[in-house]
Design a protein that fits this description.
Rossmann fold; Tumour Suppressor Smad4; globular
Length: 307
Amino acid sequence: MKNVFVINPAAGQKNSESYITDLIKKSYNAGEYEIYSTTKRLDAWKFVKEYLETTKEDVCFISCGGDGTLNEVVSGAYGYENAYVSCFPSGSGNDFIKNFGKKEDFLNIANFKDYKVIEVDLMQVNDRYAINVCNLGFDARVAHFLGVLRRFPFVSGKMAYNIGIVFAMFTKFGEKIDIELDGVEVKVANKVLLSAVFNGTTYGGGYRGGPDALVNDGILDIVRIKKVSRFKIAKLISEYKVGNFKNNPAFDGLITCYECHDIKYQSKVPFYYTLDGELLKNNVLTIKTIPKAIKFIIPSFLSYNGI
């Protein structure tokens, strides 16, 4: 199987593109690999899809960037039986691979030669896709500030997310958004602080908002937190970060967890949401799970306790 490395030069540290290219050339022989560097938003999606239109050969597309780059690569690969996907985590977050192991496990280029395949679910979100998480409300406000903060040197990953939280705390939040689960309306009297739909367990550089989520069970794990005070957010955020909110008395009456196959959010006014970190806006958001949609490659020494 040929490996095609899709590098996002804008992700991660400066000069990461030349560093990754050197690693690839040291680990592979000529003809075993190809390298493509993206030039703009959604370029990886277009490249992968067009590549697969021209070959019947099995190809593994290795996303070299963050979760946003991985999102584009899996979006292009979806629907092609000869497509496989993996990740060289050179971005700022890289939360999806935390479902399988540590970041360091995926940083050895040679590990992509000795692998196992896990069939993972995908989420269709309106006319787009997400592999890890879709969130709205307070989280989307944090994502807005992340886009600004990443323009500054040395501000990335967990640091950027934590600073984004501080900035978001000083904005007006709490939105009236209606919810349907598997076609059934859910009565929600309170405004929502945030809601997140998880395929994977982790987002935001290490926040375990979907602690029980499995990437191959065909089920969406959903968290909804009602609007609370800034003091309450500051008090509880550390427990939320480590996923300690289910059956936790401190969250009684504040947080509701659901499982379903599809969910619809609707509001009278447009609201911000994110797809694997990409910030978008709409007043209707329809999300459904696509079971075992992507063949994801992990190093052979890792295991996954899904279904």
